[in-house]
Each structure stands twice: as structure tokens, then as C-alpha cells.
Amino acid sequence: xxxxxxxxxxxxxxxxxxxxxxxxxxxxxxxxxxxxxxxxxxxxxxxxxxxxxxxxxxxxxxxxxxxxxxxxxxxxxxxxxxxxxxxxxxxxxxxxxxxxxxxxxxxxxxxxxxxxxxxxxxxxxxxxxxxxxxxxxxxxxxxxxxxxxxxxxxxxxxxxxxxxxxxxxxxxxxxxxxxxxxxxxxxxxxxxxxxxxxxxxxxxxxxxxxxxxxxxxxxxxxxxxxxxxxxxxxxxxxxxxxxxxxxxxxxxxxxxxxxxxxxxxxxxxxxxxxxxxxxxxxxxxxxxxxxxxxxxxxxxxxxxx
Amino acid sequence: xxxxxxxxxxxxxxxxxxxxxxxxxxxxxxxxxxxxxxxxxxxxxxxxxxxxxxxxxxxxxxxxxxxxxxxxxxxxxxxxxxxxxxxxxxxxxxxxxxxxxxxxxxxxxxxxxxxxxxxxxxxxxxxxxxxxxxxxxxxxxxxxxxxxxxxxxxxxxxxxxxxxxxxxxxxxxxxxxxxxxxxxx
Lengths: 305, 185
Fold this sequence. Notes:
The complex is a heterodimer. Chain A is of the alpha+beta class. Helix content of chain A is 24%, strand content 23%. The model of chain A is unreliable at 43-59 and 69-101 (pLDDT under 50). The longest helix of chain B has 24 residues, at 153-176.
């Protein structure tokens, strides 16, 4: 006779199995990486030099206004022949009011408040590890969530199927031979990989089975010229047991998903990012996504390609 | 804990040595959590590395040094999600690759139990797995799990309920088929 089995104990025993050690190489890598990573500066607006200067000006202007008012109300009356004393110009008042300048935050994790956010230079780094340009966007409203420091999603849900529209900074260089992965082994990447020109990359992405591609269209982002192509998934991704990959490491999250891939020439650096538009994206979310793209501010890397 | 508090303070001032010591203090536990959520040691290693680097970068936003580990675990969980989302799904549905087995705990899990649980676990969403791991492996009560993951308590309860039900069902299914000889790929 066997004792009754307690499922919770079995689950706990199952979870207790497995490795509990981080290899030394990981500690070494982290140590190496943080050496080149600056800590984010937490800005107290009143400690920021620009704000401090503003506040000094504001205090000075307020004093001038106060003296002026006091003089007007309580000072010696000005007779017809008297020379009027200078008073602070009314126009000084608005500029005297201290207002916090917009703070650009780093895209990190979790829900974002409306405002400006910068993606790390490291995200666009080339194969040689040199940082690429950085991208700053303006998040227009609540409901956007930073995901893993490389994406902002609207109405991000707990599963892929629920993820909404996204703006994603992603270095795109190549694709697999076929996008639909049916077996456990990933197919090889295209060899040779697309050349360095924007058209070479976008036309390679457009030329895949299971996708329909719009025209490769010129675009200017923050003064930099580039092109985009809109890829629409036309295959049923459920048939791809291991996922449908329009380019290396990027799997599609839903049928009929639209991926608008941008490739921008930033002083000779091919900067790539994309907009993900799931089928269920609402018109309002699409407008917000477009506003994010329109808000892009590109800062070239200090490291020239 | 006091030592950890001091290291966090020092690291917040940009002391890389202190952060290295801190990472070595918490890294194994992070790895244990990540590997259980992701069921893949390589992905887990990458997620922990990313989490530690994010933690270094964002450390000055942490106001209470005593909250370092819960704060780090939230970052870690998000990095696990990101890693799974960003990387391939090769291991997700195809083969049941066991997380490296240890000699313990002995006894109570049969091979079939383990395989059924592994399969069922991999069918859970990452978010459900995270709740399960923090509750059943780390041993946190549900309100603490919710706090650590930054989700409402009701959501944590719901995820735990569904995850546990799915795992129990897998064991029940196994019980109904005691001679399950299904070969794992």
C-alpha cells in the first residue's frame, strides 16, 4: 500500500531541483560590463544646475517684483512732476515662475509616465561592441510599459497574445533562410548576409515566404534619411511549431501582425528599429504609436563607425 | 544584512568593487530563481547578467538599501520575461530538457512525475511560473510575491491558482496513466 501523494509537496520537490549557482564567468562579465556603464543620475530638479540658475533668476525677479509693488503701494506718491521709478516689467512674471525642464529618463522597466525616454546607446551597438546612436522618444500618454529596456508596449498584457502595439529598438542585420520554424533546430541564417546598404537589408527582409511586404519607402527621421518597409504576416504562425521569425531572434507574436522596419542612415551608421502593430491594435493606439515615431530624436554615437 | 546595506550604499556612490561583492552575494539566488522560471540554464544566466547590469545602472533610484534584494528580484523577473521574449523559443515546446538534476530532494518524485511536471510547467506562462517560483521555491507569502513582482494581490492569487491547478492536473493525468511510457524527445 502506498501513501497518498501530496501534489503540493511534489511541486515543491520539483522546484527544488536544479542548479543554484551562477557561474564565475557571469560575475566576471557583469564586473566588466558595469565598468563601462554609468549609473543613472537621479535628478532632484532643484539640484540640477539649469534649474538652480532658473531658481536664482526667479528669486531675483520675485524680489524685484515685490520691491516694485511695495514701492507702488507704500512708497512716496509720485507727483505730476516726479520722475517715475522703474518697476519690474509685467512680462518678467511668467519667466520668473520656476518650471522644471523636461527630464529625459532612460527606458527601463515597468509602466511609463508620459514624457521623454532615451534608449541606451548599447542597444544599437555594432558587432564590434561600439555603441551606436541613441534614440529618445516621447511617450504621449499613460498605458505604455517599458519592456526589458529595448521596447515600449501599449497595454502590455501578461502574455504575448495580449501584447499591444510596440516601439522597439533592435539591431537588425540578417534573417533566417526561412521564417517559419517547424522543427527544434533553428535554420541557418542567410549566407551571405545582406550588405551594409539600407536597401539591401530591407529588400532581404521583404523577400520572404509567409510575409507580404509593402514598398520600400523613403523617410526622414529627425533629419536623417532612411527607408522603411512594412511586413505583414500572412501565414498562420500556429503552423510554425517553434515560431515565425521575420529576422534573427525576433519571433512574431500573432497572426496578421504588421512589423514596420526602419533603417536610417545616421552619419554612415545603419540604425534600425521597428514598430509592431498587432491585428487588434486600436485606432487610438496606432495614432499614439505614430506620435512616438514622429517624436524620435536621434543622437549620433560619439564613436564614429 | 547590515553588510549588504553597506555594500548597497557604497555601490550607489559608484563603487564597482562593492557592487561586485554585492553581485556575488545575491547572484546564486538570482540564478536559482531565473533557472526555475525559464527552465533553461543558459537563458537564466543571461537574464541574471542583464538584471545585475540594470541594477547597477538604476541603483541610485533605490531609496531603501534594505529593499535591494526584492528590488533586484523584480528586475530579474522582468529580465527573465525579456530574455524569453527576445530569444528563441527553441526549447519551449519541442523537447523536455531537464533542468540539471541534483541528488536531492530524494525520493518523492518519480521519473514520470518529473516529466509530467516539466511538461506542464513549460506550458505555463512566464508570469504564472514566476508566481509559482516565488511562492513555492523562494517561500514568500502571496502578498510578498505580489509586492515583489509589482502586481495586484488578486492577480498573484489568480496566477498561482491556475498554475497550481495545471500542475496538479498533470499529476492526476499521470495517476490515471500509471504506465505512461511516452518517450521524451
